[in-house]
TrEMBL record:
Keywords of the record: Activator, Cytoplasm, DNA-binding, Phosphate transport, Phosphoprotein, Transcription, Transcription regulation, Transport, Two-component regulatory system
Protein name: Phosphate regulon transcriptional regulatory protein PhoB
Pfam families membership: Response_reg (PF00072), Trans_reg_C (PF00486)
Residue ranges of domain Response regulatory in the record: 5-121
Keyword Ubl conjugation (UniProt): no
Role of this protein: This protein is a positive regulator for the phosphate regulon. Transcription of this operon is positively regulated by PhoB and PhoR when phosphate is limited.
Classification via NCBIfam families: PhoB (TIGR02154)
An MF annotation (GO) of this entry: phosphorelay response regulator activity
GO CC term (a single one): cytosol
Organism of provenance: Pseudohalioglobus sediminis
Subcellular location as annotated: Cytoplasm
Segments forming domain OmpR/PhoB-type: 130-230
Length: 233
C-alpha cells in the first residue's frame, strides 16, 4: 500500500465503498467519515494527505468543514477535493473561494477521480526538491515549500504555491488558462478554465501586504491569460 492516506467524507456508505475501492486499487490508504464531526476528528487524529469532501452532509455542509480546516493553522495545508452534485457555477466558485483545491461533480468515473487525486497530491509536492527562487524580495523555497516576503512567511494553499512556482520559473511570458492548467494541474486532468481565475485571485490576495504588495507580479494579459513580471513593480 502507498503511504498516502485519503480521508473520504460522505454520508452515503455506498459512495464511500465505491471511492474506497477505487482508491485502494490505485494503492492509496483510506479512512472514512460520514459527517463533519467525524471528519474533523479524523483529520486531527490521522493527518491524512488529502480529503475527499462531499458538499451535502448531515449536521452541517462540507463547506462548513472546509472553512474550519482552512481557518486552523494545523490543517490549512491539507489538500481538499469537493465532491458535489451541485453544478451551478456559483456553488463551484464558492467552494474554491473558501479554499478547496479542486472539485469533481457527481456522477464521475473512478478513473477521473484517481487522476484528480494523483494530480493534486503531485501539486502538493510531498518530498520533491524544487530549489529556491527569488524575485524582488519575494522568496519561494521549493525544498520546504515555503514562501517569504522579506523575512515574513506567506500562507497559501498547495495549488497557489505551484502556480507561483511555475510563474517564477517562467517570467515575462504570457500563458493562456489552458496552458496553465496543463502545466500546473496536469495535461490529463479535466478542470474548467474558470478554476484558474479563482486560484489566481487567491494567489494575488496571499501576496498582498500593506508594507509590500506583490500581487501586481501576476498580470492579466487581455485576450490571452496571465503573465508573471517584475517590471514596474
Amino acid at each position: 500500500m502507498s503511504e498516502r492516506t485519503v480521508l473520504i467524507v460522505d454520508d452515503e456508505s455506498a459512495i464511500r465503498d465505491m471511492l474506497r475501492m477505487a482508491l485502494e486499487i490505485a494503492e492509496y490508504n483510506c479512512i472514512e467519515a460520514e459527517n463533519i464531526q467525524q471528519a474533523y476528528t479524523q483529520v486531527i487524529d490521522k493527518r491524512p494527505d488529502m480529503v475527499l469532501l462531499d458538499w451535502m452532509l448531515p449536521g452541517g455542509s462540507g463547506l462548513e468543514l472546509l472553512r474550519r480546516l482552512k481557518r486552523d493553522d494545523s490543517t490549512r495545508e491539507v489538500p481538499v477535493i469537493m465532491l458535489t452534485a451541485k453544478t451551478a457555477e456559483d456553488n463551484v466558485i464558492q467552494g474554491l473561494d473558501v479554499g478547496a483545491d479542486d472539485y469533481i461533480t457527481k456522477p464521475f468515473a473512478p478513473r477521473e477521480l484517481i487522476a484528480r487525486v494523483r494530480a493534486l497530491l503531485r501539486r502538493s509536492g510531498a518530498g520533491e526538491e524544487q530549489g529556491r527562487l527569488e524575485v524582488s524580495g519575494l522568496v519561494l523555497d521549493g525544498d520546504s515549500r515555503r514562501i517569504y516576503i522579506g523575512d515574513e512567511p506567506v500562507d497559501m494553499g498547495p495549488t497557489e504555491f505551484n502556480l507561483l512556482q511555475f510563474f517564477m520559473s517562467h517570467p515575462e511570458r504570457a500563458y493562456t488558462r489552458g496552458q496553465l492548467l496543463d502545466q500546473v494541474w496536469g495535461a490529463n486532468v479535466y478542470v474548467e478554465e474558470r478554476t484558474v481565475d479563482v486560484h489566481i485571485r487567491r494567489l494575488r490576495k496571499a501576496l498582498q501586504r500593506d508594507e509590500a504588495d506583490y500581487s501586481g507580479l501576476i498580470q492579466t494579459v487581455r485576450g490571452t491569460g496571465y503573465r508573471f513580471s517584475s517590471r514596474g513593480l
